Amino acid sequence: MIQLVSIIIPCYNERATIPLLLDALRAQTYPLQAMQVVIADGGSNDGTPQAIHEWQVQHPDLTIHLIQNPDRTIPAALNKAITAASGEIILRLDAHSKPYPDYVELAVNALEEGKGDNVGGVWEIQPSSNRWIARSIAAAAGHPIGVGDARYRYTDQPALVDTVPFGAFYRHLVDRVGMFDETLLTNEDYEFNTRIRQSGGKIWLDPRIRTVYYARENLNALARQYWRYGFWKWQMLRRYPETLRWRQALPPLFVAGLLLLLLLSPFASWIFWILTAAVGIYALILLLAGLHLAIRHQSFAFVLGVPLAIATMHFAWGSGFLWGIFHPQKQNTG
Q1: CA–CA distances in Å: residue 137 to residues 10, 147, 220, 239
Q2: Of 314, 321, 323, residue with least CA distance to 251
Q3: Which CATH number is 22's domain given?
Q4: pLDDT tens digits for range 251-282
Q5: I need a labelling partner for 266 at 20 to 30 A (CA). Which of 97, 126, 171, 250 fits?
């Protein structure tokens, strides 16, 4: 029996990308009449609601519900969309993603086969523009040095994992574990998956379930994104310290170590040389990563762009994490 799938999408100022997402949903192999799209808009002022309305007029065969999210946060948007949804299956996507045609079908099949309580796939990260730094950021965002062991960014093997970015789950799951935590403005999906695992559930990643994800366009936007990730990761770890992974601990430890060496270096020359060696080795590793990707993708710009992007990710994430330790107040999602 075909089950109704409600696709929930938090949205704010996504006029440029929301038609691409809706086109991708209309092209799904899953029956259109068995899908509904619920978009929770946080007060977009760039014409996003008008773009959605225009698209819906031209394509009335896909059901779209546009609801308001006055709280303007992602977890609030997800919860409002779940409340407004009527499907037996909830599938989350983002407004700047573009799922492959069989995304919904494969996710539903995995749920029906009992692979996991929440199932998702792999991000195929692409640049937001053709500028050299945008292409470098997209390449860095899928490299293990940049993202550690976050499998959903690069794996080709199905596995049980800690989290998936855009999950699909039966609606009754929220009755068991609760809705998304609206006090976490980022990391809400990881926290949700943590509660699933703590309740005895499983998170399943299938690399056949793929979506294009558009990376940030410039280093400023990338730094803001990863600062938020780091800050809110600490807020989550205060509740679930056992979920800390090595990839999450290294950036704040590295940033804190460099700061300590920098502060102590005027008092001893050997500390200065340790600092110099640490920075030099780090820079060399990043340059080698950039060179490797430059050769693979035949793009000389990656030699400089990838190290800049990875360093931005590491230092912004680590600094945000450290700031969260000493300033545990809420931060604007920006």
Answers
A1: 23, 12, 11, 31
A2: 314
A3: 3.90.550.10
A4: 999 999 999 999 999 999 999 999 999 999 99
A5: 250
